[in-house]
Design brief:
This protein is of the alpha/beta class and 383 residues long. It has nine helices and 18 strands. It is globular and about 75 Å long. It binds nicotinamide-adenine-dinucleotide.
């Protein structure tokens, strides 16, 4: 048996994303499965050390995850040659500095989005990795959601004909905390802590649009702070200084138009927390996180406007549910496995820090569009 041990410094894993997605559902699951099988008698064995600020939290997380090592000393971990990979899921504002220190220490990099809070810093991280010959990747998990894999297959099979538009509703009600406690961390609602739904969500939209539908060429975006005051984790009211919703229109390659509404101040009466409708000349699809419903040209009803009679067509019925045609693993785990293969065996991994920087760029340009109340082109980002 050939074992590729990969030592991973996991920083920020006591948080929501770090614990649930990256540690428990990805790395700890891979370890429990006996490592990642990459060939007959060949396995990748992740060996994590959990890094954070609070020893008690780290110890109990180690216990739950079945991991042995933890540390509150990032610099010591970065100096340790047993660990070749640095992973970061800290709050956004701390990412670029810690990733930069890990690059200086010669570690390969894998990290959450956004990779930085401004484009220049984000591109610089990529360039430094590239110059030092370090492998690098950014989390772009939504590409491995079952719903988005299903739409990718439809595109590959030319189901849509020419794609015309993409319309998306994303979001749900995030409780303010005055009576019912909030279900998302408070820093997300403070600009001074690098919160805000534009910086949070535009990186996702950049890679979803770029990878599935067409390169983003321009954007107009209107942000808003609908809820002015929220209550934090300690029961203390604070001013919500960051945007909690945006309404954006994108122009993509081939003249495709995308419109995306994202909001933490909306209530859901649709199939899922994320719904995305794709309309093409030959067919349409409505995609949720897991499911996908399609309507082909040949089964498209022919509505006639007449509010004087009961609606004769049931518009929800004329859609076919796409069956599961392949295995769908946890989206974060699926991408982790590809990255571990990239580290161990040089398999390609196109979702690098330059792609991450494109997400930061889109957030920056969207904010500019909002501030200047105008359409803004998205220039090519060179590595
Ligand atoms: N890929 C995705 O779908 C997705 C979803 C949500 C969040 N994220 C990203 O993951 C990152 C973490 O988000 P989260 O929702 O897990 O946040 P969180 O608040 O739950 O976790 C933050 C982590 O950072 C650590 N931290 C270090 N210094 C801190 C400080 N001074 N203040 C607060 N926390 C500090 C915390 O201990 C914790 O481990 C963010 O950058 C966010 O953009 C990605």
């Amino acid at each position: 048996m050939k074992t590729h041990r990969i030592g991973i410094i996991m920083n920020g894993v006591t948080g929501r994303m770090g614990t649930n997605q990256h540690l428990m559902r990805s790395i700890a699951t891979i370890i429990k499965q006996g490592g990642l099988q990459v060939g007959p008698g060949e396995v990748i064995a992740p060996d994590p050390i959990l890094v954070g600020r609070n020893p008690d939290k780290l110890k109990s997380l180690c216990h739950v995850a079945g991991v042995e090592k933890w540390s509150t000393d990032l610099d010591a971990c970065l100096e340790d040659s047993n660990y070749g990979l640095y992973f970061d899921a800290q709050i956004t504002g701390l990412r670029a500095d810690c990733v930069g220190r890990a690059i200086d220490a010669g570690k390969h990099i894998y990290c959450e989005k956004p990779t930085a809070t401004d484009t220049e810093t984000a591109v610089d991280l990529y360039r430094r990795c590239h110059a030092a010959g370090l492998k690098n990747g950014v989390v772009q998990d939504k590409l491995w959601l079952p719903g988005l894999i299903k739409v990718r297959r439809l595109i590959e099979n030319n189901f849509f004909g020419n794609i015309l538009t993409i319309r998306c509703e994303f979001g749900y009600w995030v409780f303010e905390g005055h009576s019912i406690s909030a279900q998302r961390p408070s820093w997300n609602y403070r600009k001074e802590d690098q919160g805000g739904i534009i910086l949070d969500m535009m990186p996702h939209w950049r890679y979803i649009l770029d990878n599935l539908f067409g390169k983003v060429k321009g954007i107009t975006c209107l942000g808003a702070t609908h809820i002015p005051e929220r209550v934090d984790e300690n029961g203390k009211p604070y001013v919500a200084t960051a945007d909690d919703a945006f309404y954006a229109t994108f122009e993509l390659d081939q003249g495709i138009i995308a419109h995306i509404n994202c909001s933490w101040a909306t209530r859901v009466r649709r199939d899922d927390l994320l719904t995305l409708q794709v309309d093409g000349t030959k067919g349409s699809a409505v995609i949720g996180l897991r499911e996908c419903y399609i309507q082909h040209y040949g089964s498209t009803p022919k509505p006639v406007w007449n509010p004087d009679i009961e609606q004769p067509i049931n518009y929800l019925q004329d859609w076919i549910k796409v069956p599961g045609q392949e295995e769908y693993d946890n989206a974060f785990k699926a991408q982790w496995e590809l990255f571990l293969r990239h580290i161990a065996g040089d398999e390609p991994f196109p979702w690098n820090l330059l792609e991450g920087a494109k997400g930061v760029q889109l957030a920056e340009i969207a904010t500019q569009s909002w501030q200047e109340r105008r359409w803004v082109a998205v220039p090519e980002l060179a590595g």
